[in-house]
Amino acid sequence: MMAGKAFISGVAGFLGSHLAERFVDLGWDVVGVDSLIGGSERNVPDGVEFRVADCCDRASYADLLRGSDLVFHCASAAYDGLSVFSPSFVHRNTAQATVDLASAALAAGVGRFVHCSSMARYGALPAPFTEDMTPQPVSPYGLAKLSSETMVRTLFTTHGGEYAIAVPHNIIGPRQRYFDPYRNVAAIMISRMLRGEQPVIYGDGGQMRCFSFVDDVLSCLERMGTDGSAAGEVINVGPDEETVSILGLAEEIAAILSFPLDPIFVPARPLEVPFATCSADKARRLLGYRTTVPLRDGLKKMVEWIAAQEPVPFRYDLDIEIPTAATPSTWVDHLI
Q1: Which of 9, 118, 203, 209 could link 145 by a cystine bridge, Cβ 3.0 to 4.6 Å?
Q2: pTM of the model
Q3: Is the pLDDT assigned to residue 2 strictly greater than 80?
Q4: Per the similarity annotation, which family is this (predicted)?
């Protein structure tokens, strides 16, 4: 696909802003919206036509969508753990936001719609997750993501539009919200260690994950938006060569910072999946995926970026809708 017009939701967020930057560099006309719940106008690259708008308010951005050859839906309340305690907030800003944007995109006659899902769709299935597995999400966030996928597939199949569904692993890199206590474990750990504080680990730290550096994800999303072989496909995006435990992640960061590690262990969070890693075989086959930034190098880039930012306290600015005895004390008592 030759350069055209790309619309990006969540364009002021972590992934959306990097994606916008890549497409601007490729010569595309890039427009986008963001509610700024989790994004910042400082993230929006030069050359992007940006508007503060909620995906659930179709009328506020319908004119921006018109003439778009490609839509990337990156906006989401990507709070897997918090969704157990704030399901309404997460559902509205994930599932409902997707339905509204997909509807608006179809009404505008866009070329292709690339939906960014989450490996939370797989739930506690045996790892590594493969795309042919029947998803079994366990958290409200995972349920919202699977619902979003189903709506995208149904609407675009019914109305004749093109779509693709990306399933990124845990993405890390510069511009990630390093002051958010509810998500982004690597950023939280780095922020605390830079302050001279020990990282907080839920459970025993044995939860196994794979982390994707953002640059490696972008190459796949670009192909999913422009390559015909990705149309109608669900594709895991991210490395499967380096699996690390959450405790191991803390050890990696501590080694980079020469930090004397003595983690603070707190009770496990409800519905947290112990093993969540994906196979990247399909991405290799269809998208030519390969890992170019190993975990240690990606963490070093994050450390450098966060260290260069203005130190700010963690922001507990989201409501806990279901406060119970199961709610992590780290959030209730602002312990992170």
Answers
A1: 118
A2: 0.96
A3: no
A4: Belongs to the NAD(P)-dependent epimerase/dehydratase family.
